[in-house]
Amino acid sequence: MTIDTATEYPQPARQRRFLSDFLELLGSMRFAISLLSLVAIASVIGTVLKQNEPMPNYVNQFGPFWFEVFNSLHLYAVYTSWWFLLILIFLVSSTSLCLIRNAPKMIRDMRSWRENVREQSLLNFAHRSLWDSTVPRTVLTDRLARTIALRGYKIKIVDKTGATLITAKKGAANKLGYIFAHGAIIIILVGGALDSDLSIKFQQWFMGKVPFEGNGLISKIEEQHRLSVNTPTFRGNTLIPEGQKSNTTIIQQANGVFIQDLPFTVELKKFNIEFYSTGMPKLFASDVEVQDHETGKTFPATIKVNEPLIYKGVAVYQSSFEDGGSRLQLTAYPMGAGHVAPYALRGEVGSSTPLAAGDAQYTIEWSGFRPFNVENMNTGSSDVRSVAKQTSLTAQLSASLDQHSGSAGKGINTKDLHNVGASIQYKLRDKTGQAREFNNYMLPVKIDDAWVFLAGMRESPSDPFRYLRIPADDNDSVVEWMRIFDALQSPALRARAAAVYADTALPNDKEGNQLRPQLQASALKSLEIFAGDGKIAGFAAVTQFLNKIPADQQEHAAEVFMKILNGTLWNLWQVARAEAGLPALEINDRHARFLQLSSNALSDAFFYRAPVYLQLKSYDEVKASVFQVTRSPGKKVVYCGCLFLVLGIFSMFYIRERRIWVWIKDRPGAETAQAIFAMSTQRKTMDFDKEFLELKTALMQ
């Protein structure tokens, strides 16, 4: 036997059945909970992963393969991705359908007295009681009704055939909790949609707007990259230097930026900042003047943190502060082969300066200036730049590497905060487009009881700065260290220093004359190894050289090598001073300490890898405020939804619905009455049991 489904269920009937099943699924609680779980997972992704960053940032962070995978899933703009919006649409539809289907039933149930109950059904209640009275039915009805009403219940008396029914209810507003909670979800989602990037997406989809990629003056950017001044919602940032004005804000997108025009112009008159005694910023605010484009009127205002300027539905928040184009005066010390005298250099933050270093051409991109830097100067913690430990026989050299490399502000466990003065940050870009970032401090900093100039370098923005520590000389400058550095690059000066070392280290006798050529060759070899071969230099090169010596001889060889190297470096310093027409220095503890720190810095200079060292000499600071500019009409909608959600949760958890029925009938053959008392609630608790007993006792009395 076969069943013809087409005959059994005609096409219209199957369509109606499918629609009914779909609506049943859409309005079910399990479907809504599943959607809420997906929204929660997407929100976690959007919170952990920075949204709408430039695409190269994601490539650097995840690599080409995972970048493409995440990009195909639209994880870089989760909240405006098609699948997230689809989830929200289904969630709003599901919650709305559930509310539409159940709210009328709940409201009817709230208003209902449930007066159609029968005597027999009351006897089946878990909480019930039956007793005989000594008064007539009318008197008992009046007494019981007043007793129940005094306990806060609303009552209704219904005449039945041969009996009277008292029905009462309390806490019916509990049902409103479910309505408020479901309605709150809809309101919050709608408010969130109003404050999302949907309005910007609509302008992209239907008005031909495209993000701007590249650099250029904001005033010159074409109309297709600019959003309407009537855009209902947006969130962007704008930087305004002192004395300048802006009537736009920048909205960051994954593949560029949009320029959002504002209905007014903000001019930064003065940026104010206050500091704690440690140099940490305590308060910063901006004195601005606002000009309305429509009326032309102007008015002053002060924007502080958590005290925004709100005008024409647009809120301007004090977000942070930056440099607004400070003018810098620097001294450049070449660090290439061959002696080149230092020279003056000028720069302006936000601009670039060409730089020639020998045959190579570079561009200095001035990216930042800070007039103060609060650093943790505790030296009890490990350095940021770590160097792999060597064998125990070369532990002295590896320990030396660990001691002189690392972060400018050391220490994370015990804080010793100090303002160490101004610093500059810049990128040095070669002709191939490759760039390294540098961060140099203007003044010497005291670290490990020694005053040093900190010069930081990092290969990429995701790396921490690694700092070269140049010791300050007798004149609190880097001149003497640069003199030793230049001399170390000169084969002629290295040879002269080795000869001087051999002459002064050995007596002028027959045995000394025989050993002098060998010692001179060893001294020259030590300088050549320390100067490096272009691939490795400093203490790392010395360690590599010592590792070639038999293990049982390495410790003695290391002691001899370091003794010769230190002595030859001293002579190299003096030879360089003589070459410059300066007198030789006195051998004392201060100069010995300087030479020790210098050798550490000379070793680190190989890792610094810069053709020039830039030292800030003076500056003219220009401050700038960074404002976050927002228009968020959905904010009040979300607040309203949150209020409804609180009311709904409060109603559901703290308001308990209770129903009471008292069936009163005449006793057969007597003028007195008999009462059946029953009580119910949605959630049975110990408090409900206690209330039932108290009410039963009061009614029976």
Structure description:
Strands 14, 15, 18, 19, 20, 21 and 22 form a 7-stranded antiparallel β-sheet that branches. The chain is elongated and about 150 Å long. The longest helix is centred in the N-terminal third of the chain and has 30 residues, at 82-111. It has 701 residues and is of the alpha+beta class.
What attributes does this structure have?
701 residues; five-stranded antiparallel sheet; seven-stranded antiparallel sheet; alpha+beta; 26 strands
What percent of the residues sit in helical stretches (DSSP H or I)?
40-55%
E-strand count:
26
Strand content: 25-35%
- CA radius of gyration: 41 Å
What is the residue-averaged pLDDT?
A: 85
* Biggest beta sheet summary: 7 strands, antiparallel
Task: State the shape.
Answer: elongated
Distance between the termini: 72 Å
Q: Detail the poorly predicted runs.
A: 380-414
- Determine the structural class based on helices, strands and strand pairing: alpha+beta
- How large is the count of helical segments? 18
Outline of the structure:
This protein has 701 residues and is α+β, with helices and mostly antiparallel strands. It contains 18 helices and 26 strands. The strands form six sheets. Strands 14, 15, 18, 19, 20, 21 and 22 form a seven-stranded antiparallel beta sheet that branches. A five-stranded antiparallel beta sheet has the order 1-26-25-3-2, with helices on one face. Strands 4, 6, 7, 8 and 9 form a five-stranded mixed beta sheet that branches.
